[in-house]
Design brief:
Length: about 170
């Protein structure tokens, strides 16, 4: 659709889409956290996935009949990863503060980055980031271990689609 546009326009459009996506994720997480009392984490996650699929179908309007079995397999695998990611996030949010639940997801990539660090500054940056995460999470004397586990368990399904789409 935008192949004939200038590289600057495509870059700006990409940045706008990333910004819209980031804002929508945060807003939907806040809205979803108010649904837990009524629908629980599974119901809230299911509703979010249904609404996301409906919006995507309306915007993309793919021809579903022409998709190959390989394409359907990829779609189902991607959907399963998204569903696992949402269920684990909402299960964590039910038990621990939203800020801590979202922050836990980024500790895995932080660990990978720190393992690959070579110079002094590269080794220092993950430590500073971890200090920032600890400051953002605040000092907690009591926490729900299951909520922490759900927050940590969200890392593999949230990184899996990045690996699949990079191939």
């Amino acid at each position: 659709m935008f192949q004939n546009s200038s590289p600057l326009f495509r870059a700006l459009l990409g940045a706008v889409f990333v910004l819209i996506g980031s804002v929508s994720i945060q807003v939907s997480s806040v809205l979803a956290s108010s649904l837990f009392a009524v629908a629980g984490s599974l119901g809230t996650s299911g509703l979010r996935m249904f609404l996301a699929a409906a919006v995507l179908l309306c915007l993309a309007r793919p021809s579903l009949r022409t998709l190959s079995s390989r394409a359907w397999g990829s779609i189902l695998l991607y959907g399963a990863a998204m569903a696992a990611m949402n269920v684990l996030l909402y299960s964590a949010i039910e038990r621990i503060p939203l800020s801590l639940a979202v922050t836990l997801e980024f500790l895995g990539p932080l660990a990978v980055a720190s393992l690959g660090a070579k110079g002094r500054i590269e080794r220092l940056l993950p430590v500073l980031t971890l200090a920032g995460v600890a400051a953002a999470a605040g000092v907690q004397t009591e926490f729900d271990l299951l909520g922490i586990i759900f927050g940590w368990a969200r890392q593999p399904p949230s990184s899996a689609p990045w690996h699949w789409t990079s191939r």
